[in-house]
Design a protein that fits this description.
The structure is a single chain. α5 crosses α6 (182-193). The chain has helices at residues 42-56, 72-82, 98-106, 122-136, 150-167, 182-193, 245-259, 265-277, 305-312, and strands at 14-17, 27-32, 64-68, 87-92, 110-113, 173-177, 199-205, 239-243, 286-291. It has 328 residues and is an alpha/beta fold. It is built from nine helices and nine strands.
Length: 328
């Protein structure tokens, strides 16, 4: 039996927001998972993945975990591993936030960076590097965030029940950003197992292959995928919204300037998706969304005007420039 009680993720608050889309008449709630110890929802995922490996006996104290990550899961796994006496190697690509890499290293992780391959598929290259490292280190394991049922289970057992408790139930829409689709799938399974009427909205990036998307260049990590993860075959959201990266930037800034919540790019994408959809939603509706991570690792990208102009070749725009609520 593993002594996991002190390692479990926190129950984070779900708060009502009144200024984000002021005047829309819809109740909007935010699940503040940026308050997890490692700064993101991936704290839940990492705990569930490690716990499953320990319970199965595949992983023991003193062992080694190797995983592909775009940032947040790597930070969370680094923290989860260090408190259990497990070594951790994070396989990352050139899109990873430098601060995220520093955070992993601060927890004692080894960071293994791949170069972008000729076909541009960073995810496939990261996963191949994981396989190579597993072969080099007999006895090491991967948490396999892309296919392990422990990923969605963490959100079935905790995330969705917490959201419902924090909103008072009777939730009409839940907006979730997607990459491995683990959070989405866990919430989806809870809603359908319990016969709830909540519509699940998957927020994805333009350039992602999830949900029939076409592969393209993506500069911001943590949202979308270049290769379909195994879990995605079971993910069946009610609505899919694909968001341009400049709109992720503007969504982040809107959330920061209107509600004082500094969040990462995937949450900015959700704000943009909500801005597009809210005019068509019944004003009596209750809507919730995940604040997936803190915006601190994005200070030199999403929140930096020069980076936006240079890398995205766009003007940051007004903080109100988010979807159809641009003038509110």
């Amino acid at each position: 039996m593993n002594s996991l009680g002190t390692l479990r993720p926190f129950v984070t608050p779900t708060v009502k927001l009144n200024r984000l889309f002021e005047g829309c008449g819809i109740e909007v709630y935010a699940k503040l998972d940026l308050l997890q110890l490692s700064g993101s929802t991936k704290e839940r995922t990492a705990n569930g993945l490690i716990e499953a490996l320990l319970d199965s006996g595949q992983l023991v104290a003193g062992g080694m975990v190797i995983e592909s990550t775009s940032g947040n899961l790597g930070i969370a796994l680094a923290r989860q591993c260090v408190v259990r006496g497990i070594s951790f190697t994070a396989v990352v690509d050139e899109n990873a936030n430098p601060l995220a890499l520093e955070l992993m290293a601060a927890y004692g992780a080894t960071v293994n960076r791949i170069q972008t391959p000729a076909d541009g598929n960073k995810l496939a290259a990261r996963r191949q590097r994981v396989n190579d490292l597993l072969a080099m280190h007999p006895g090491s394991v991967t948490t396999n965030q892309y296919g392990s049922p422990a990923n969605p289970r963490a959100h079935f057992e905790a995330t969705m029940p917490e959201i419902l408790a924090g909103t008072g139930g009777n939730l009409d829409y839940l907006f979730v950003a997607t990459s491995t689709t683990g959070t989405l799938l866990g919430c989806q399974q809870y809603v359908r197992t319990h016969g709830l009427g909540t519509k699940i909205v998957a927020v994805d990036s333009v350039g992602s292959v999830l949900f029939g998307g076409v592969a393209g260049t993506r500069r911001l990590p943590g949202l979308g995928a270049g290769v379909l993860p195994e879990l995605a075959s079971s993910a069946a959201p009610d609505i899919v919204c694909q968001i341009q990266e400049i709109d992720m930037v503007r969504g982040c800034r809107r959330l920061a300037h209107r509600e004082g919540i500094l969040a990462g790019a995937s949450t900015g994408a959700i704000v943009a998706a909500m801005g597009n959809m809210l005019p068509g939603i019944d004003p009596a509706s209750r809507v919730a969304f995940m604040v997936h991570d803190t915006g601190v690792p994005y200070l030199q990208t999403v929140y930096n005007d020069e980076w936006v102009r240079t890398v995205l070749n766009e003007e940051p725009g007004s903080t109100a420039d988010t979807g159809k609520f641009a003038n509110q």
